[in-house]
Amino acid sequence: MTQPASPVSPATTIAPADPDATDEALASQPIGYWSGVTHQAVIKHIRDAMARQGVTQPQWWILNQVDSDPAGKTREELADRLASFADGPYEISRSVDLLLSQEWLAAGEDSRFRLTDAGSAAKARIKQLATDLRAEMHDGITDEEYVAALKVLRHMIRNTGGVDALR
Length: 167
Known about the structure:
Elements: H1 31-52, H2 57-67, H3 75-82, H4 91-101, E1 105-107, E2 113-115, H5 117-137, H6 143-160, H7 163-166
Antiparallel strand pairs: 1-2
């Protein structure tokens, strides 16, 4: 069976990670380095900004998940949905507890969480912060460039069989 031609030029050689690489040299740069540095910088920036507002990123995720379902969400549903994004196996449950203690979530008799009025107000405030952060991080990047970058990353994820090959 013949392998399809690779879109990467045979002249492209792999080079060591170089944050100062010229545009001409970027094709030889390792994706693992660049995606890892990007992930660290973006997550740090988001989490630092949210911390200044008295909220964590996992709390933000939970507020969004709970608000997305009129029936609310259980602790188990939240953990199942968000565990792969969390920094550890207990982070989502602990964040639920923090939101309960802040009275941003309330548990019904059915053990399903719903936003309180204070939780809805906090979600609106944090949504504005998230919108502002997105605009800041996307400064100088067109929507077309952003879409192209995500398409490349999605294709690499599929090529490596990651995230269940994006289902």
